[in-house]
Amino acid sequence: MSKPYAIRTALEEVLDGLVEGDSFPPERELAVRFGVARETVRQAVHELLVEGRVERRGRGTVVSKPKLVQPLSLKSYTEGALSMGRKPGRLLVTWEDVEAGSAAVPDLAAALDVADGAAVMHLERVLLADGQRIGLESTYLPTHRFGAFTETFDPTTSLYAAIRATGVHFGSAVERVETVLASPREAGLLESTTAMPMLRLHRRSVDTEGRPIEVVRSLYRGDRVAFEALLDDRD
Question: How far is Cα of residue 153 from the mean position of the Cα atoms in its chain?
Fold first, then answer.
């Protein structure tokens, strides 16, 4: 058995004896306990950090909360967080009008079925779970359908609930998930680093009549969020 694998197995056993919020032993102590180089321990601890098993807190390391598991469905982030007993929250970053077809978002006109140059509402928010920054959500809505939100919508609350309150019913969505690294700006907003793997989601939702509702580009910290989907092969 290789030393990296052996130390990783040993650290898993250490974790088994701890609970959420417990202090994780420092690297120097672990290196002495298991008789390996500190660099070997550091690499194993880094893997646990990336997986979200432990997290840095001040100068120490503690056992993390379980990852927030979000369903790949037409449920909102709020519904997913509440279903796991977590407190959802949002911080507004950007709320602006953009033009469909602009260089910044060239495919937006086609995705929202509006003309080039049409007004589109852009809402960017940091997503929180129990106060932790877990995601950065960028939503584009056709202004001709949801322009009233400028006066009525509270950006710290559920956007899906607000959309449904207008009488719009979600029909279906196409969603793609990929692994990426965050830009310096994104990492800063998520209180992470550019080396931390992220999960990027692209979603286009339509209503029950097939009319576009939204285009969403979300970035989630890979150490704090996981996704699951219900697969059913019944006819």
Answer: 22
